[in-house]
Amino acid sequence: MNGPWHSYVYAVGRDGGDLDAVAAALTGFGGSPLRTVVGDGLTAVVSSVPADDFGTDGLTERMADLAELEALARVHHEVVEAAHARTTVLPMRLATVYLDDARVRAVLSERAPEFSELLSWLDGHAELGVKVYADPVRARAEAAPAAPTAGSGRAYLRQRRDQRRLRDDAYRAAGAVAGAVRDTVAPLTRGVVAHRPQQGELASGPGENVANEAYLVPRTRVREFHQALAGLTGSDAGVRVEITGPWAPYSFATRPAESGAA
Predict the structure, then answer these.
(1) pLDDT of residue 260
(2) In the chain, which stretches have pLDDT less than 70?
(3) Contacts of 200 (CB under 8 A, 6+ apart)
């Protein structure tokens, strides 16, 4: 292999054959073969990436290119999810790059106590995402049609007032649903991370994302989690609830302080 190359790390797990099997079955970014790097009882899933493209300047340029970023994220996610399907892993942040395998091995040794504790905490768990949307347009569509009125300034003002009321009601209802979600799933979860609500192209579907939270849930209780929230999805006019996952625990690769021990 011609160089120079850096080592791109997808996920870290315990030393063992599960991650070797993942490395043998998939390829990394750019079709580069995956391999494992072992240190202090831990294993990192790694591939080689061009140093010019993944050094400081090259990586900044790549992350600014939406098409390149999407391609990188797709491969990263594929590798992490394949690893998560076989064993407990810590997903690494997108574009976690080290100088070479020797540096990866050194990081595994340096952070072995932290990584090992996290892996024990995450054993048998997956991440589920819950997004709550306020959708005033839907609220207006579901509202009873107004009685016909003459085309007057007073009628226009009444219509505008009704639209503002429906909008405010939708946002209040969305906030109440978001609080109900947290209360409802609390007994089923080990940890929660509140992310910034998604906007623009990042948001999926209609409405405005007002709550975007990730929950760490025992794999054995994923179905129960969905069932617990079934009564909240679409129960209020102008509110939409979206549940995603189960995923590898991306949001819990560092232990959130508010989660506490369980």
Answers:
(1) 38
(2) 1-3, 137-167, 200-205, 233-237, 256-262
(3) none
Cα 232 to Cα 226: distance, rounded to the nearest angstrom: 10
What was the pLDDT predicted at 53?
Answer: 83
pLDDT of residue 138: 59
| Residue 245 CB contacts under 8 Å (≥ 6 apart), including other chains | 126, 127, 128, 129, 222
Cα separation of 228 and 56, whole Å? 45
- Rounded CA-CA distance 45/248 in Å is 14
Contact call for residues 115 and 108 (beta carbons, < 8 A): yes
Q: What per-residue confidence (pLDDT) applies to 259?
A: 41
Record the pTM.
Answer: 0.81
Q: Give the pairing type, strands 97-98 and 191-195.
A: unpaired
**What are the distances in angstroms from CA 52 to CA 59, 62, 73, 99, 255?**
8, 11, 19, 12, 33
* Alpha carbon distance, N-terminus to C-terminus of the chain: 46
Q: Are 70 and 58 in contact (CB under 8 A)?
A: no
Contact 92, 1 (CB under 8 A): no
pLDDT for position 258: 45
